[in-house]
Amino acid sequence: MHENFGDNNVDPCRCCRVRGGEYVLGIQDRSQPVSRFGCGGKRNEKHFGNIREDGSRENVGEAEYGLHRIHRTLAEQARTDFKAAISKGRAYKIAIVGSDAMGIDSNGWGPQLKQALRKAYGSHVHVSLFAYDMNSDEFIREGKYKDVADFQPDLVLFEPFILNNNGAVAMENQLNDIKTAAAAWKDAVLLIQPSFPLYQATNYPDQVDQLEMFTKMEGYTYLNHWKNWPDPNSGKFKAYVKFENGEQTAPSAKGVKVWYEYLRDYFIAD
Questions:
Q1: Lateral strand order in the sheet of 189-192
Q2: pLDDT tens per residue, range 150-175
Q3: What integer pLDDT is reported at residue 74 of this predicted model?
Q4: Pairing of strands 155-158, 14-19
Q5: Domains in the chain, please, with CATH?
């Protein structure tokens, strides 16, 4: 499933609000004092520029909007590309790609991360979710990776179906599938992460270790959200996954929270 979450429905108005005695740019917040630019909750064309139908902005007067929110741990190329996109008056495109473990409703970590990015960066980012119930071989064979390429992302956050692949796709094939997708996504910054951990798994953790090693060898960024979960071999961990007929089918609300908060903190500085 691909669900496009563009930001054309975001209120394009911006205002400068007071935070800690300083003016900073942010999403319009009428609970804060009116800015020194006097926009009063209405778009100030002179200061912010005109907004095109595709969400890009003409004559942006404040190219640094949102840059204070970029976390220092974000891949350096992504930071550079983000600033370049803003300076050119276009939205920075982020594709969140992987299995349906990301969730497709508002409770999933994918939609939550999309909302957080939009809140932090406004119309300067355009985020799309590409969630599929399939393994990586099917993702390539059915051409779903091309849907991502058609979006022309600047950055791809990729969960390469490693849990769906478990017992179905050989590890060598999994890594080749990543290479095929990455080649199609061209110059996009690629961030790779595993799916959710499992309680007392055996082979799966070894496969995730291989994924991490491959990611680093290929020069991509690996996001190890597992380090924020409880020990998967502990009794405490069982509350972080859903069980159906003895099978671990998805992260529970607790698991989603851990996963989402790790990614939010990676992309957005407080």
A1: 2-5, 125-132, 92-99, 155-158, 189-192, 221-222
A2: 999 999 999 999 999 999 999 999 99
A3: 79
A4: unpaired
A5: 2-10+70-267 (3.40.50.1110)
